[in-house]
Amino acid sequence: MNKKQKTVLFRILAAAILLLLLSFSGVKGVLRLLLFLIPYFIVGYDVLRKAVLGIIHRQPFDECFLMTVATLGALAAGFMGDGDYLEAVAVMLFYQTGELFQSYAVDRSRKSIADLMDIAPEYAYVKDEDGQLTETDPEDVEIGTIIAVRPGDRIPIDGIVRKGSSSLDTAALTGESLPRDVSAGDEVISGCINKSGFLEIETTREFADSTVSKVLELIEDAGSRKSRSENFIAKFSRIYTPAVVFAAMALALIPGTFLLLTGNPPMWGTWIYRALIFLVISCPCALVVSIPLSFFVGIGSAGKKGILVKGSNYLEALSEAETVVFDKTGTLTKGVFEVSCIHPEKISEDELLHAAAHAERYSNHPVAVSLRNAYGKEADGCSVSDVEEIAGQGIRAVVDGHVVCAGNEKLMESSVKTAEIPDCNHCRNHPGTLIHISIDGIYAGHVLISDVVKPHSRQAIAELKREGVRETVMLTGDRKKAAESVAAELNIDRVFYGLLPQDKVLKIEELMKDKKGRTVFVGDGINDAPVLSRADLGIAMGAMGSDAAIEAADIVLMDDDPLKIAEAIKISGKTLRIVKENIWFSIGVKAACLILGALGIANMWTAVFADVGVMILAVLNAARSRR
After folding, report:
1. Is 327 in the active site?
2. What is the H or E stretch that residue 583 is in?
3. Residues forming CATH 3.40.50.1000 domain(s) in the chain
4. Residues with Cβ < 8 Å from 521, sequence gap 6 or more?
5. Which of 450, 459, 517 is closest to 479 using CA atoms?
6. Quick one: 141 exposed, middle or buried, by C-beta within 10 A (0-12, 13-18, 19+)?
7. How many Å apart are CA 429 and CA 581, to the nearest integer?
8. Cα separation of 334 and 500, whole Å?
9. Where, residue-wise, is CATH 3.40.1110.10 in the chain?
10. Over the stretch 275-329, which tens digit does the pLDDT of each residue have?
11. Which is more confident, 223 or 145?
12. Which residue from 265, 357, 553, 559 has the least number of CB within 10 angstroms?
């Protein structure tokens, strides 16, 4: 509990003890009223103050005004009647108890968000030319600066490890409990905690553009985007509160006036008391508090799992997802090419990879990188010279005195002196890029380079179907064979290939036309930004995704795991179920109690339950979203 909550708790306990003592006292008349006013003002002075300020500012119709009118009226009724002030003070006491409970629940939910917010580093250690470390504000660190990260410190800015190795705790960003091992050459993102080794990192972004800054912006903006349910309750309260005040006035005046006009006793005290009960019951606290709290808790729960939702409106929309459309490269696949098949001719696999990797030594093309990674022993002292890149065909180089050509069939046609290039049925039936290699004019074999499907992609599609998604679709710019192969492997319902970015937008619009539910698009690249914006709901990969995609998306997955999409839908569905439960429960109980109060069956204690009791139950129900 914070200091303010402890103060309120102390006031509640003090008022409760005084109320208990006074209820057994035999004091009568005005002195009894004055004594009961002591616990009343101890527990309720802030409610009275807010009610007065509301009247001064011409915005009187809120729960504080309703409580003030109801309790002061009950005190007046007690003074004019049997001198029983217990109900009036008890109503204020229980109201404050409910408010304290609600405040504590909100603070618990805010803490889960605050845990995410606590990823911003306060400083960065910059290494100067003399090797000395200087404590610097992260915002003052330029791109290309070498910073040191000690064990236990957070990485302040995105960059590449230049020296050292360690394991990183990424839980605050990705929700992943297992540490991630990094060493020289690995990319690292800000906000992660360095658990063991000393790291030197070359920054690749400014602090304002780093991952931690983007995450904080998303969290801070989330509260400003309200769901349909929240907007409905806000409008509902503005109409509902004045309506019940006038209804209470009508209940207090009309029956008594009618009885008076018909020659019967008006029983003003009875009807005023019923009107006061009506006011207490009608307080919309349960709805006003529990619905925003439910969404707040849902967003916090998603954030803990590495799913950043930019607003409760997006969390609500996700529960209506009917079609989920995926980009392929970087979303369902790693976007990292790897050697998936090696077929040498008259030499060993190692010799074939040796020739190809050295021929591609100076190329930055993804295919070249994948060949060098597959060989893994490039620094073996071999000499490489006369490197010639042949546009649209491949590379020719002299490796240890041997002419090596690596490329497509066109390059082989001009470099192989004898025999035809063998047709490999196995490789031709698998998606990817086929690299042929010749050595001194003799065909040496071929290597298949393929994009790798992410480990959880197939499970992600299955989980989406389990969560009620009717159709999964893949949009890609790849060729037919590669696209259909990935779609078949992952069990995706439909696939469209050979698409440019503008084609993807048209295809999304076409898919959205006949759908009753929401169409969700999941992507990661700059070319996906237009589609992410156009879809009903856009989900971006946050770890390796482009800034444009993250900016355009409504939800960001911090660890690029497509399995988190089903997790997000599950959290969304549970949050919406809880919201609907609270709405129907609150309205149902209040409606029943209002009727009973108007008929004189319900007393002030029933009113306290209908207001404070229902609010506490609704808040408890909202807190279930944390699990």
Report:
1. yes
2. helix 563-598
3. 301-333+454-569
4. 325, 326, 327, 508, 528, 531, 532, 534, 535, 537, 538, 539
5. 450
6. buried
7. 53
8. 20
9. 337-452
10. 877 777 777 666 666 777 788 788 878 877 888 888 788 888 888 899 999 988 7
11. 145
12. 265
Instruction: Return d(Cα 590, Cα 278) in angstroms, integer.
Output: 10
Residues in Cβ contact with 456 at an 8 Å cutoff, skipping those fewer than 6 apart = 561, 562, 563
- Give me the catalytic one of 62, 169, 327, 611: 327
d(CA 336, CA 334) in angstroms, rounded, equals 5
**DSSP strand E in 536-590: where?**
537-541, 555-557
Residue identified by tokens 């609907």 is 580
Domain 337-452 fold: Calcium-transporting ATPase, cytoplasmic domain N (3.40.1110)
The two beta strands, 159-163 and 199-203, are antiparallel
Considering only 197-201, 218-222, 259-263, 582-586, which range has the smallest mean pLDDT? 218-222
Residue 94 has which token pair?
């229980």
CB of 458 closer than 8 Å to CB of 470: no
139-191 tens-digit pLDDT:
888 898 999 998 888 888 889 999 888 888 776 665 555 577 888 888 888 87
| 453 has a pLDDT exceeding 90 | no
Bridge partners, 133 (sequence order): 127
Encode 207-223: b = buried (16+ Cβ within 10 Å), e = exposed: beebbbbbbeebbeebe
- For the four alpha carbons of 350, 355, 361 and 366, in that order, the dihedral sign comes to negative
User: Residue 19: pLDDT above 80?
Assistant: yes
- What CATH topology corresponds to 124-153+158-204? 2.70.150
Give the tokens for residue 46: 């802030």
CATH class of 301-333+454-569: alpha beta
174 three-state secondary structure: helix
Cα(200)–Cα(161) distance, integer angstroms: 6
For the chain, give every residue range classified as CATH 2.70.150.10.
124-153+158-204
